[in-house]
Design brief:
By secondary structure, the chain is an alpha/beta fold. It is built from 11 helices and 9 strands.
Length: about 270
């Protein structure tokens, strides 16, 4: 104690949260414990809706999980629930979304049959960008966007091809969402120890740096143009390129440039009078 993370539905706010806080504060007052709150972080998960009503046995609008698991598997069901909405938001049940999760897992499964000897550097750049984003999103409980980034990676693999190393990284990142599916793939890839005991992938900072970025050019706060430049361009060179941009000339010609505000790798705002 205190608990690092509490996750529960809003319907538990009275029975769980109110009572636990009452006893925690009581025990603190009589000197049995040193902390004031029972939980360090709270995530209140959303409710599952069907036809815009909260799914419940009393209303008879529940979905039979046994038939779903028999047809699609538990992992497809889990993936759909985690991907359909942020965990704190309400989730509207949709059989089409479940079908989409099932098809996605089948796409991942087929990758093992077409692995390359060595994947292109372009794929590895995306792999490491995905590691960075998925890691950050999972830590922030943005599970739906973490899954979305993994789906983008799978699309890229179908375009560029993956080798065993890249595919193993993908399987590791899928494991928290689809553990049974990932474990089966992990063993088929020749690994002996369970995927759940392995270390989480770590991204290479050198591979997540954008080679080129789009710089938005503003004049007095209004967007007037855009240019593509190297991500590591020097500020002085960037200002010269911006001021030389042909589309910008109509907005600054005959006017005095008072200031040039640079937001690195994002925008340049020209202040004129």
């Amino acid at each position: 104690m205190p608990v690092d993370q509490y996750i529960g539905g809003i319907e538990h706010a009275i029975l769980h949260l109110l009572y636990s806080r009452f006893f925690t504060k009581f025990f603190k007052d009589i000197g049995l414990i040193e902390f004031h709150e029972p939980f360090q972080r709270l995530l209140t998960q959303g409710m599952v809706l069907k036809d815009r009503e909260v799914m419940s046995k009393s209303k008879g609008n529940i979905v039979d999980p046994d038939s779903i698991i028999t047809r699609y598997g538990a992992d497809a069901l889990r993936l759909f629930i985690l991907f359909a909405a942020p965990p704190e938001a309400e989730l509207e049940w949709d059989d089409r979304g479940l079908e989409g999760s099932f098809k996605f897992l089948n796409r991942v499964w087929r990758i093992q049959d077409n692995l390359k000897e060595k994947a292109d550097i372009a794929l590895y750049r995306l792999v490491h960008k995905t590691i960075k984003k998925a890691t950050s999103d999972i830590e922030a409980f943005k599970l739906n966007t973490a899954i979305a980034s993994l789906m983008e990676l799978v699309n890229a693999i179908y375009q560029l091809g993956a080798d065993r190393e890249a595919f193993c990284i993908l399987v590791r990142m899928l494991a928290p969402f689809v553990p049974h599916f990932s474990e089966e793939l992990w063993q088929r890839l020749g690994n002996k120890e369970t995927v759940l005991k392995g270390p989480w992938p770590v991204f290479d900072p050198a591979l997540v740096i954008e080679e080129q970025v789009t710089i938005v050019i503003q004049v007095n706060g209004k967007v007037r143009s855009k240019i593509e430049v190297q991500a590591d361009i020097e500020e002085g060179v960037l200002k010269e390129l911006v001021l030389a941009d042909a589309r910008l000339q109509a907005w600054i010609q005959g006017k005095a440039v008072k200031k040039c505000i640079v937001v690195p790798q994002k925008l340049v705002n020209i202040v004129v009078a």
